[in-house]
Amino acid sequence: LPKTSYLNINLTTGIIQTTKNSFDYELIQTYSSLIIACDNINSLPSLCCYLKLNINIIDINDNLPYLIYPSSINDIFIINYTNKTMPRLKAFDNDIDSKNNFISYSIIGGSLNSSINIDYLSGQLYLLSTSILPLYGTLIISLSYQTNIQLTLLIHDNQTDPQKFLISIQQYSFSSQLFYFISFILIIIISFFLIIIFLSFYFFKQKHNYQQKQKHDDDPLMNTPSTTTLSARSILATTTTINKKIYDTYYSFGDSVTHDIIHV
Questions:
Q1: Do 66 and 58 contact (CB within 8 A), yes or no?
Q2: Which fold has domain 66-160?
Q3: Per-residue buried b or exposed e for 213-250, using 16+ beta carbons within 10 Å of the residue's own CB
Q4: Which residues belong to the signal peptide in this entry (predicted)?
Q5: Could you tell me if 119 and 105 are in contact, meaning their C-beta atoms sit under 8 angstroms apart?
Q6: Domain boundaries defined on the chain
Q7: Mean pLDDT score of the chain, rounded to an integer?
Q8: What is the mean pLDDT of residues 96-124?
């Protein structure tokens, strides 16, 4: 046959390939198929031989472990510690091979990770201290280091009503959320007013600078160029000769030097 539910064979090359339906060891462990090889297929007679192909399926670790007790990880796991005993967690793995369905238990996090311990092989829980009851929080457990689950636990004794305690926890949670919400709104309002104050101060300063500049531009005294009349006295130098040389007066600023202009 050119094709079965699991195998497909090429009519000319004889190459066998698997189909989209993969073998699952949990459903089938062995598989057999009859292979026929014929020559001169386009005309008769043709000679054929037959081969029965037997396939042994090998199991792989393709199933993740999951928790069966407690049955729901979404609900709060309420533990009554009045008789001083803690429950035992139970998990299951659908792999058939023992090396693939081995399950171990480890606590890897949560708010109660320092208050509770767990047996690595059995999943038995142990409370490390009884002086802190009631105890409420989360526990993150790893199953065979493949699946991580988070449990919410309430451990109480006969002095605590679990339902009233949970109601008080819910009310406290609501109050905390309301407080954070109001605080967030107040922060937004304060930030908004601070921005308004900053922008008002900025525009006031810009307006003040503009008014000062406008006042400066409108003042006629500020716009009239200032003039200064310089006066000096010519220096008359008499030489020993008959001729007299009169040195013209010159003007300069700072340390600049100008050569004398001499008129005879």
A1: no
A2: Immunoglobulin-like (2.60.40)
A3: eeeeeeeeeeeeeeeeeeeeeeeeeeeeeeeeeeeeee
A4: none
A5: yes
A6: 7-56, 66-160
A7: 81
A8: 94
